[in-house]
Specification:
heterodimer, A: 381 residues, mainly beta, Porin, 16-stranded antiparallel barrel, 11% helix, B: 288 residues, alpha/beta
Chain lengths: 381, 288
């Protein structure tokens, strides 16, 4: 009897306890069969797979459109107007696949004329690239940046420095960007990546080394790119370029170039740390009137170090003669700090000093603010 | 059968991520040779388009992509440079694994002021094993187009894959069911499919907006949320440093754990099933 009363009291006590006290324990202690039923019910609702009714973002035949703004401010101690600021350039990019056989890329630029201060609209690049030629060939036709070394193919806003290396600008100005055709071949090398590019174009206008000939001399360029994966985190690229074309005197200039780039980027934390060492050397052979030849040389080397997700530093040295003056010697040093807010916006500050055996020392400070709206294609590695 | 010149009679497949590689291997078995561009411990948003990947793609019979713009920063350039018409978008060898997946977080308007949002919806859909079935179906369809004579073989493997997913899903769901509704903090907005499938509640993210590194203001907000909701766990990914979540841990006692976002994220995650085995076990341990 006592036992019965004791059991009844415990039962009443337990029933009087709020149910939620046991809710956690209950969920664990539920028999597997009950849980399994729930899971099976859930699974049956997730069986594949009728075509989804969910609408995706409306498809469009419009090309990818982006605009890149390049605001710059500068201080130069060697000119009369020392401070300057404003929109240096706005680039409008339209990029899309044309059909199964080709894609097209157009880059329009609105750049400021430094003399008049007015903006001029121009076609920076506009070319068609094939996607389906046999034998690993790819043909490009239109106006494009030449495949010369490592700087020339890259739009300035994507470079990790503001002022171009003197070695490069003394020989190629703001770059060789010309109209013609380009054929590239992925060499079937089983050991490493090798790409050979051959280009024939009209000849650049207003370039320190080359000019557009009035005759039948065209600008011809070949570039051999050799790329090695040293490890998962490190790569090495060695390139050889050779080019020939008419010069200012409508005689021929030949330039050979070597580029070497080492990159280190830990695969796992590749957004936090990276290191790049890039160098190029140019060997120029310019024919000038009176059957004279000027053999001159220029080179630059820079390191780019990423300290954190957003902070980058670039230090550069440049040595340069000039295309028609081997006696001119310029030495330039620059340091650039870049802060990358996101992949769509960066701010960079740069100090640069140039000493020369011809002119007095030049010191410059630059600030650049790059920003992009829209969908902009990736840049080359 | 359309075959690769490199791997003899095998179909040469290149995938963007290691999860797609794992599923392709499970469906294609000994009839495929698969390589992945991104590793399992790498942020798939940010892969450097190395020229050596172009070689792989130039020889591929099939290319499998997560799609939804996840790889927009690197795969279009690699595809264009591959000179391989077989794997260009629209070709038989181009497989978008996201086709047919019910997407989450599809934005009604696009504004980069909201951070690095994806216009088609959240692209981390492979972190729901049920979506793995749709991925496998898309891959199976792709393999059948390239090698129709092996259709029955691929479909048998697809059925085996689906059966195993169903079985494992029961196991995973049972294991984690006591923790259904558990509130957690995540570093980046890449767990919504996993969260929905396994009944977790992600209260907030370490990143104030997708792609924006944690700010002091955000950390203060997170610390207060962790304290208010008695949150025990912060989940991160192998490719994010844990320095900011460690600060929150020190202030609140919440634990930071790194889950696998892809196959190969850790040594023990050797295939798509291991990915969920690892994550479920790690979560349970963390929540205990």
């Amino acid at each position: 009897m006592n036992h019965f009363i004791y059991t009844a009291l415990i039962t009443v006590s337990l029933l009087s306890i709020p149910a939620n006290v046991f809710s956690q324990a209950d969920s664990i202690a539920k028999p597997d069969s009950v849980l399994l039923k729930q899971i099976e019910k859930q699974l049956s609702s997730s069986q594949p797979t009728p075509p989804p009714l969910q609408a995706r973002t409306a498809p469009s035949t419009l090309p990818d459109i982006s605009v890149i703004g390049d605001f710059q401010a500068s201080y130069k101690d060697y000119v009369k107007r020392k401070f300057d600021a404003g929109i240096n350039e706005a680039e409008l990019a339209l990029q899309s696949v044309v059909d199964p056989y080709a894609r097209a890329d157009f880059f329009f630029t609105v750049g400021k004329d430094q003399l008049t201060g007015k903006f001029n609209f121009d076609l920076e690049e506009g070319y068609l690239t094939t996607l389906s030629l046999p034998a690993h060939l790819q043909l490009k036709a239109g106006k494009f940046r030449s495949a010369l070394g490592r700087i020339n193919p890259v739009h300035p806003h994507a470079l990790p420095f503001i002022s171009l290396p003197n070695a490069y600008s003394n020989y190629f100005g703001e770059g060789i960007n010309d109209e013609g055709v380009s054929l590239s071949w992925l060499v079937p090398n089983p050991l490493f990546y090798q790409e050979l590019v051959v280009q024939i174009t009209d000849g650049p206008i207003d370039n320190p080394s080359f000019s557009r000939s009035v005759g039948n001399t065209y600008f011809e360029l070949a570039h051999l790119k050799n790329f090695f994966d040293l490890s998962a985190n490190a790569t090495l690229e060695l390139g050889f370029s050779g080019m020939t074309g008419a010069n200012f005197y409508d005689l021929r200039t030949n330039i050979g170039a070597i580029d070497l780039t080492y990159k280190w980027k830990p695969v796992q934390f590749n957004t936090y740390k990276s290191f790049t060492w890039q160098s190029e050397a140019y060997f120029s052979n310019a024919n000038i009137p009176k059957e004279s030849i000027v053999n001159s040389f220029a080179m630059y080397s820079f390191i780019n170090f990423q300290f954190s997700r957003r902070l980058f530093f670039t230090g550069m040295y440049s040595y340069s003669n000039k295309p028609y003056s081997v006696s001119t010697v310029e030495n330039a040093y620059s340091a650039t700090v870049g802060w990358y807010a996101t992949e769509f916006q960066k701010i960079e500050v740069e100090g640069k000093t140039t000493s020369s055996n011809i002119e007095k020392e030049q010191n410059q400070i630059f600030l650049r603010w790059i920003f992009v709206i829209g969908t902009h294609g990736a840049h080359q590695y | 059968m359309s075959t690769s010149t490199v791997y003899g009679t095998k179909i040469n497949v290149v995938t963007t991520t290691a999860d797609l590689k794992s599923i392709t291997e499970l469906i294609g078995s000994d009839k495929v040779e698969v390589s992945s561009i991104a590793t399992g411990y790498q942020n798939p948003h940010f892969v450097d388009p190395k020229p050596s990947y172009i070689i792989k793609l130039s020889r591929a019979d099939m290319f499998v992509t997560v799609g939804l713009d996840l790889e927009t920063g690197w795969s279009p350039q690699l595809l264009s440079s591959s000179r391989n018409p077989k794997i260009q978008k629209g070709s038989n060898g181009y497989v978008d694994a996201s086709i047919g997946v019910i997407l989450l977080q599809v934005p009604s308007s696009i504004n980069r002021g909201e951070g690095d949002i994806h216009i088609y919806g959240n692209p981390h859909y492979w972190l729901d094993p049920v979506n793995g079935k749709q991925i496998a179906k898309n891959i199976c369809d792709g393999l059948e187009k390239i090698s129709p004579e092996n259709k029955a073989f691929f479909e048998a493997n697809l059925n085996a894959f689906n059966t195993k997913i169903d079985l494992k899903l029961k196991e995973w769901t049972m294991k984690i069911s006591p923790y259904k509704g558990a509130k957690i903090i995540a570093y980046h907005n890449e767990w919504c499919y996993f969260e929905q499938r396994f009944g977790l509640v992600i209260v907030d993210f370490m990143e104030p907006k997708p792609g924006i590194p944690p700010t002091p203001t955000q950390l203060v907000k997170i610390i207060s949320e962790v304290k208010r909701n008695a949150i025990k766990l912060i989940i991160s990914s192998p490719y994010f440093t844990t320095s900011s979540s460690d600060v929150v841990s020190q202030q609140t006692g919440a634990k930071t754990i790194v889950l696998g976002t892809s196959v190969g994220a850790f040594d023990t995650i050797k295939d798509y099933f291991d990915l969920f085995d690892y994550n479920i076990d790690k979560l349970i341990k963390g929540l205990n």
